[in-house]
Amino acid sequence: MILKASFFIVFFTLFLHWETSETKSQAEIGQASLPPRGWNSYDSFCWTISEEEFLKNAELVALRLKAHGYQYVVVDFLWYRKKIEGAYTDSYGYDVIDEWGRMLPDPGRWPSSRGGKGFSEVAQKVHSMGLKFGIHVMRGLSKQAFNANTLILDTTTGKAYEEAGREWRAQDIGIKERACAWMTNGFMSVNTKLGAGRAFLRSLYQQYADWGVDFVKHDCVFGDDLDLDEITVVSEVLNGLKRPIVYSLSPGTNAKPTMAKDISGLVNMYRVTGDDWDDWNDVSAHFNVARDFSAAKLVGVKGLKGKLWPDLDMLPLGWLTDAGSNLGPHRNCRLNLDEQRTQVTLWSMVRSPFIFGGDMRKIDDTTFNLLTNPTLLEINWFSSNNMEFHYVTGSVSSSGKHGLTHYSKNEGKTSVLETKVLALRSCKDVKANGWSTKVLDNDVARVCWEENSNNRTSPFCLYKRKAPSVSEGEMVYNHQSHGNLHLLVTERTELCFSASSNRKLTSKESSRGSFSRCRSHASQMWELNNNGTLKNSYSGLCASLDIVKASSGGVRSWLATGRRGEIYLAFFNLNNQVTDMSAKISDIAKAIPARRSSNVATCTAREVWSATNLGAIKDSVSMSVKAHGCALFVLNCN
Q1: Rounded distance, CA 419 to CA 547, Å?
Q2: 551's torsion region: left (phi>0), alpha (psi -120 to 50) or beta?
Q3: Where in 19-138 does DSSP place strands (E)?
């Protein structure tokens, strides 16, 4: 008994030392020094979560996940919307706002917020659990506040903002033509070039800090919805606050590395896809995106007061709801176990934030074990040299016939479908320079893409038409340049080229430029510049005609090194059949910078998910991998 007690004391002391040293190192390095871990309410509650439900989930995170590095609990969107008949994700007139046009928690769902206390009491309770509290916010100003024309608070005086001898109001700063494309009844951009616009944003984030918020998820400002001006101002405000707040951007539809470089140093996390749900096509859509951001060396670089992490989105595991639902959690995750393992393994190898989305009140052992697997968590926080590994073979058996696929930079033998799509990218990207004006015999003007002058095929063209006049509803920007062109499919059509979808997209979807009924929204307004770029007025991004390679299956692999010299190798089978996968030890050694000049004689290996000890390996690592499944190897090599 004494021996057992002594062992427990030693173990507990070591655990406390590990936890304390990790916490200390994060404080010394800065905020988000490691990929953040936590829980978010969206996947299980959509917008309907109550204070009681949130705090119960937070208690369980503290009890079961905190010891594994999970520290943030986040209330996702519409916490200010009254849960009454008629209210839904894009309804109008159901939100609680204060006299300054700022959102307040719905007291019907968040009773502790009554009396102007906001989230203060909830944040205090979360902090008492040893956790950090986060909230979701939308871009700019609410349509409800704009129509009410509320005054703007000057936080330096505690009174209405005054400039040029007058008080400023919501309608002075709101840009209704730049309403969030997929939530037009909700929120719009503000004019950040005005002192009043900056004062309004400052009043929002000062209030969040006063409530005790530690994490902000800022939505409808990145990807196709990019609002670089607002991101920049919010980052400056957060940088000047005494309270550290981790700054996260969402969503990431059509996000590209060049776009991410524009916000480098301003934030701590940014989404790189649309919403991820429990659908295999959503999971598989992350492989190309993860490859591109890792290859661009954008993982763990300098961020706001700390580091910056590309975010593959929350993990929709366990007990969930549906996108846009007014119901709470009511169903199980639709991914099978192999697909769930693939998802968490990719997230760990990429070093994405680990944010769990399922209802903690009904977490099952399988989900808990996936979230707390020690090898995954070790890779997620402490691995390095993380990269997609291009030298892996996969042999698929189907009806007695075998076919060999080899995914390689030099020897790609997997057939893929190539298609041309309209896409968006940073205007600084040279790949955006390819547009010019052409006039037909009947004086009809077109805007055409001719990036490759040697291409003898007909160029892709859109018909050009000036936007409606002011009397017909033209949007008016007195504060910034804007496009004044509608681009149509044909001369007589009323379908215009839109830069952003009018609904929220999932990871497997991409807006890639869509056509919809012509209107006076900034997402359909374009400006053709002399340098050959076609700039959109909603996001400030530029259009290009891209060649997209699509494949329904294949094999992928990722590689990383551990802090103790170990090598992590992951096989991913995207095929619909069992696939025998293999990688040569010599190719693995060549891919790792520290081992390129050394001769690797043998490795010992174990596979994590099957708990198989493979013993000594000389030539190659091989395993049969289930459809949509993965294998994760830990190699120790001489």
Answers
A1: 6
A2: beta
A3: 37-40, 72-75, 132-138
Residue 127's φ and ψ, nearest 5 degrees, are -65, -35
**Quick one: average pLDDT of 551-578?**
92
Burial tier of 22 (Cβ tally within 10 Å: 0-12, 13-18, 19+) = middle
CA angle in degrees (0–180, nearest 5) for 151-155-161: 35
Angle between the 228-240 and 195-211 helix axes, to the nearest 10 degrees?
50
Please give the structure tokens belonging to residue 200. 């309004």
Q: Label residue 471 left, alpha or beta by phi (over 0 means left) and psi (-120 to 50 means alpha).
A: alpha
Is the pLDDT at 55 greater than 70? The verdict is yes
Evaluate whether 413 touches 405 at the Cβ level (below 8 Å).
Answer: yes
Tell me, what's the pLDDT at 469? 47
CA–CA gap between residue 314 and residue 43 (Å, rounded): 8
Q: Name the token pair of 127.
A: 């902090």
- pLDDT tens digits for range 543-563: 888 877 655 579 999 999 999
Burial label, 72 (beta-carbon count in 10 A; 0-12, 13-18, 19+):
buried
For residues 497 and 155, what is the distance between their CA atoms, to the nearest angstrom? Answer: 41
What sign does the dihedral 143-146-151-152 (CA atoms) show? positive
Give 276's DSSP letter: -
Q: pLDDT tens, 212-237?
A: 999 999 999 999 999 999 999 999 99
Mean pLDDT of the chain: 87
Q: What distance in Å separates the CA atoms of residue 584 and residue 469, rounded to the nearest whole number? A: 65
- 621-626-629 Cα angle (round to 5): 85
The Cα-based distances of 114 to 107, 209, 309 in angstroms read 6, 18, 36
Cα gap 577→581, rounded to integer Å: 12
| Residue 260 clears pLDDT 90, i.e. is over it | yes
C-alpha span between 567 and 548 (Å, rounded): 32
Residues in the chain: 638
**Tokens, residue 119:** 């989230």
Q: What is the mean pLDDT of residues 435-450?
A: 80
511 pLDDT exceeds 70? no
Report the C-alpha dihedral over residues 139, 95, 58, 126, rounded to 10 degrees.
Answer: 80
Instruction: Tell me, letter by letter, the H, E, C secondary structure of 280-319.
Output: HHHHHCHHHHHHHHHHCCCCCEEECCEEEEEECCCECCCE
Q: Which of 612, 618, 624 is nearest to 634 (CA)?
A: 612
Cα dist from 135 to 89, 182, 209, 347, whole Å = 17, 20, 11, 23
Contact (Cβ atoms closer than 8 angstroms) between residue 213 and residue 245: yes
CB 215 within 8 A of CB 165: no
Confidence category of residue 404, pLDDT binned at 50, 70, 90:
very low
Convert the pLDDT of each residue in 120-162 to its tens digit: 999 999 999 999 999 999 999 999 999 999 999 999 999 999 9
Tell me: pLDDT of 493 over 80.
Answer: no
Of 138-142, 340-344, 496-500, 599-603, the least confident: 599-603
Looking at per-residue confidence, does 367 or 598 come out higher? 367
Token pair 């004062």 is at which residue? Answer: 199
Distance CA 215, CA 353 (A): 13
Mean pLDDT is lowest, of 141-155, 434-448, 505-519, for 505-519
Give the DSSP per-residue string, 437-448: EEE-TTS-EEEE
